[in-house]
Specification:
24% helix, 8-stranded mixed β-sheet, 12 helices, Urease, subunit C, domain 1, 2 domains, globular, alpha/beta, 8-stranded parallel β-sheet, binds (4S)-2,6-dioxohexahydropyrimidine-4-carboxylic acid, single chain, binds zinc ion, TIM Barrel
């Protein structure tokens, strides 16, 4: 793991010189303005001004420069996944092309990442193979490992409900101790919030409407209730929120949360096949519409893909046997840039949800075009509207739930100032770093 670099340390007496200037327009103070961005040799933004001189320039003209997205929630499946379906190399390539500069990868690997040895094995496999930066979650299922894992992992993920690669949730009696130990590590913790005691037994689910009935939103509510015992020092985040009715309570409790493109844009429909089977399930149209309204109003702090690829063969099994999950790291930002292009979403709302807040949540010097932040920058031309087609995407699983949807893909992507995407094609090398949070001592536990 590279040594952590603290972005809030006092500036060095002689700041490293600017070695490159990138120009275009960017979103500053609530509007688009022409800017020049000075980048140092370590790939950090040094200066942002109207006019900079003294270094070679890369001019993007009228195009829009945004910070790369930070995706809090992906499943790249190493180790133990089917290498024909996904790997860290494949997943981070899709991230690069979709405008994601850091992906936080979940621990429901095989075996689950629940000990330091397993964590180090997984980190070793990722090193030198990631096209973008990577932060690795661990899961706190072995209590004795939580403290040691806290010294190496990027974050924790707690599964309160069963899902891919995860069986029984922790014993309720052990939950307070587990939450307390995680709080002591200072690392953020994301929770898969479904309480299986609220699942409804019944005949085999045959479509997404049945699946919603079987794993209802009350299961999400009950799991979130169970987290009330969390100590105040715990940085707590709820993954893939589906019930917009829970937003006021989460805000009041200062708990961070995310919504996914599939829960925002797709809904449970009679006759829908297992390709749309996800955990938690897609919800009925009125709930989905309310969730999207909340997102557009800026009331959902984070957007995250929950990229969870499965082979089309597995997804085409009968509904009860098909695995849950859809791919999405390459399409997340393009789908919502299209919402911005259409005028349905404010660019500032998207920048906060896809870039600023996830970066802050993970303690990363990213998500903003500002001095001291990594020069992870994407270049957008809103005239360049495309149609999503699985054959043009880079997911080895070869399918997408968003086939035929309009989208705006980044034209270019710089990682630490170096081009990794040009004219929509990957031109990089696997220079992504393994990252850990860099919280400053005064940082608020809850995201602003
Ligand atoms: O739909 C899902 N797929 N939900 C999860 O919680 C896990 C994920 C996966 O890993 O396939
Ligand atoms: Zn997930």
């Amino acid at each position: 793991m590279p040594p952590a670099r603290r972005f809030r340390d006092p500036p060095a007496a002689t700041p490293p010189p600017t070695v490159q200037i990138v120009t275009g327009r960017t979103w500053i103070h609530g509007r688009l303005e022409a800017v020049e961005i000075g980048i140092d040799e370590d790939g950090y933004i040094r200066r942002v001004a109207k006019n900079l001189t003294g270094a070679p320039r890369r001019d993007f003209g009228e195009a829009i420069l945004l910070p790369s997205a930070v995706d809090l929630h992906v499943h790249f499946r190493e180790p133990g996944g089917d290498p024909r379906v996904e790997s860290v190399a494949d997943g981070t390539l899709q991230a690069a092309l979709g405008g994601v500069g850091l992906a936080a990868d979940m621990p429901n690997t095989q075996p689950p990442t629940d000990s330091v040895d397993r964590f180090q094995d997984r980190a070793g496999r990722a090193r030198g193979r990631a096209a973008v930066d990577l932060l690795l979650y661990a899961t706190p299922t072995r209590p004795g490992q939580i403290g040691p894992l806290g010294r190496v992992a990027g974050a924790f993920k707690l599964f309160l409900g069963p899902t891919t690669g995860i069986g029984d949730p922790p014993d309720p009696a052990e939950l307070p101790g587990l939450l307390g130990r995680v709080a002591e590590t200072g690392l953020p913790m994301t929770v898969h919030a479904e309480d299986p005691q609220a699942f409804r037994p019944g005949p085999d689910p045959l479509d997404t409407v049945d699946w919603d009935h079987h794993r209802p939103a009350t299961a999400e509510r009950r799991a979130i209730d169970r987290l009330r015992i969390a100590p105040p020092g715990l940085r707590l985040h709820v993954a893939h929120l589906t019930d917009p009715g829970l937003i006021p309570e989460l805000v009041e409790r200062a708990v961070s949360f995310e919504a996914t493109p599939h829960h925002l844009l797709l809904e449970a429909t009679r006759g829908d096949g297992p390709r749309r089977k996800v955990n938690p399930p897609l919800r009925r149209p009125s709930v989905r519409a309310e969730l999207l309204r909340a997102f557009r109003e800026g009331r959902i702090p984070c957007l995250a893909s929950d990229h969870a690829p499965h082979s089309s063969e597995a997804k085409d099994r009968p509904f009860p046997q098909a695995p849950s999950g859809v791919p999405g790291v390459e399409t997340m930002l393009p789908l919502f840039l299209e919402e911005v292009r259409r005028g349905d979403l404010d660019l500032g709302v998207l920048v906060r949800a896809a870039m600023e807040r996830p970066a802050r949540w993970l303690g990363q010097p990213m998500g903003r075009i500002a001095p001291g932040h990594r020069a992870h920058i994407i270049v957008i031309d809103f005239r360049d509207r495309q149609t999503i087609a699985a054959r043009r995407l880079h997911a080895p699983c070869g399918w997408t739930p968003f086939e035929g949807w309009p989208a705006v893909f980044p034209k270019a992507h710089l990682l630490g100032g170096r081009p990794i995407v040009e004219d929509g094609e990957y031109v990089g090398r696997p220079v992504g770093q393994l990252r850990r949070p860099e919280f400053a001592s005064g940082d608020a536990v809850a995201p602003a």
